[in-house]
Amino acid sequence: MLGLLDRRVLAAASLFVAVAATLAVAAATATAATPTTSATPVARSAAAQGSMRLYLQGVFFVKGNAVTVPRRAVVLDGVLRPYVAGQSVTVRAFLGHRLIATRSLTVEPSRSQAYGHFSTALSSPGPGNVTVRVTHAATSVQGASSASRRFAALDQHAGFGSTGRFVELVQQRLAALHLYIPRTGVYDQGTGLALDAYHRLLGWGTYQSLDGRTIRYLLDGWGQFKVRYPHHGRHAEGNLGRQLVALVDGSRVDLIFPISSGKPSTPTVLGDFHVYRRVPGYLPDGMYDSSFFIGGYAIHGYDPAPDYPASHGCMRLPIADAAVAYNWLNFGDWVDVYY
């Protein structure tokens, strides 16, 4: 039987073990509730990688090459992706190796803010090859990017016998306005006749040369033959006031030619008629590829076909134009003649 002292020792030991266990559980619980912290620093976000594209407005394309003329405005439009607020670009334009323009542009957001855009107008002070370079310098939020475009400012001096891209451009723009012109690349008789018809269309008289005003109007796309009889379908309209004949399909003008109508003593008959007879080649009196629309009146080729009313009542075409008009017209087509 344990003595009194032994019992007291055992009780004290049991109390010590219980207190130690309680303290151990409390320490473990406190450790689990305390989050672990890391000394690793937070990484900074990388700058957005930019990409740029450039577009030219107001230029023309001759054999795939962008062209214009000196002192004519060309609009440069640019797109920078993605859009990041507070960005700008630097535009530099060179004529050959000579700097002709430099400017800084703010990049504006698109409606969706998916990309940024910028725009500016440029012109070349003289003929030559123009290079436009645009750069976006790297910032803390967007990376660097750049792009370039090129166009040629063409020498506008041209006359009979001239060749080159400017002549090709003139022929292209005349054809776009539906003036009949063989696009030979040479300032030849066909070019002169088309320019003559263009001047008549504008009410400027009759001449076959190029001047600054003609070039400006031509490149701006001025000049339209006003169709009076669209309900006549495929037909010819002779405007004696302008000394022009137009071949028209409904309201769409296909081709315009200069004519010489009847002189005062033998005027061209006015009215609405139909082609009733067609004679290819030459007739004994020199008429060529003739489409008759009433009596002896016809649309036909003849030499000469001057730039004033000189015929016996027909609508004369230059011989070089006659076959094209003849092949376009057919039996039954309307021919409308008016001032």
- Placed side by side, the strands forming the largest sheet appear as 2-3-10-9-5-6
The domain count comes to 3
> Could you say which structural class the secondary elements and strand pairing correspond to?
alpha+beta
Oligomer: single chain
Largest sheet: 6 strands, mixed
**What's the mean pLDDT score?**
90
Query: CATH class of the largest domain, please?
Result: Mainly Beta
Number of helices: 5
- The fourth-level CATH homologous superfamily of the largest domain is L,D-transpeptidase catalytic domain-like
Radius of gyration over C-alpha positions, nearest whole angstrom? 41 Å
Q: How many β-strand runs?
A: 19
General form: elongated
CATH topology descriptor of the largest domain: L,D-transpeptidase catalytic domain-like
What is the end-to-end distance? 148 Å
Proportion in helices:
10-25%
Helices and strands, in order, run as HEEEEEEEEEEHHHEEEEEEEEHE
Shape-level CATH architecture of the largest domain:
Beta Barrel
Describe, in plain words, how this protein is organized in 3D.
- With 339 residues, this protein is α+β, with helices and mostly antiparallel strands.
- It has 3 domains: 51-153, Immunoglobulin-like, CATH 2.60.40; 165-220, no CATH class; 230-338, L,D-transpeptidase catalytic domain-like (Beta Barrel), CATH 2.40.440.
- Helix content is 22%, strand content 34%.
- The protein contains 5 helices and 19 strands.
- The termini are far apart.
